[in-house]
Amino acid sequence: MTTRIVRAMLLVGCISLVSPVAFAQKAKAKKDQGTAVKTFDLPESSGGAASAMPLEGVTARKGAPMGVKHTASRVEQMADEKLEELISTLNLMIDQADDDDEIKAEYLNRLAKVYWDKSENFFNKAYGDELFEQLRAAQLANDEAGVAAAEAQQAAYLQERLHWQEEAANVYMMIVDRFPDYPNLDSVLYYLGFALVQMDMQHKAFPYFTRIVRERSDSRFVPDALLNIAEY
After folding, report:
1. Separation in Å, CA 121 to CA 117, 145, 157
2. 61 in a domain, yes or no?
3. Nearest-angstrom CA–CA distance, 221 and 141
4. Distance (Å) of CA 56 to CA 41, 208, 220, 224
5. For residue 86, pLDDT beyond 70
6. Within a domain: residue 21?
7. Domain range spanning residue 218?
8. Distance CA 123, CA 196 (A)
9. Would residue 37 count as lying in a domain?
10. Share of the chain above pLDDT 90, in %
11. At 72, phi and psi to the nearest 5?
């Protein structure tokens, strides 16, 4: 891993400890152009249907039934406002980095992880206590409109979750396509595959798991990649 990548990782890791707004203002002052990186398009790929593919060490949360009161929230879950600040800051950093600079890949990698955290926030909202209590109160009051409203809100949260899952996958895809020599490409390939599995796109995930085994045989992700290949 190059010194520049290490420095970039340290810088990105400190974003949450430094005022993202202040950093973004300094970054923007260096460049007159606006933030160019907002969303990314996932190139089309083909493949047949596949059965569900569980990942070792990761609990796939597809959809608990409405009415389940307690859900496991991620300890490291960040507030929505903090995530928005991180997204804004990272977009500015990505916009400034040269297209062929490997540091840009590190920034994109971090952005994809933040997008995924944001998707998890919407999952927690969809199956969290607040919405459960709203539904329960409506049910006890025989309030059909209230029940419908709660169910509609849950559906909206889950749709937002899917949107940010797609955004994360799209950014990972961009790294794979544009930065084939990125030192942490094995992790990008794995989490791209993981994201696609979570979105029921196992047929699209399979090629990325096989690339880990073929191209990064010494990667710590090889065992999990082999497991997913075997279950495909």
Report:
1. 6, 26, 9
2. no
3. 51
4. 28, 16, 13, 6
5. yes
6. no
7. 184-232
8. 16
9. no
10. 61
11. -85, 115
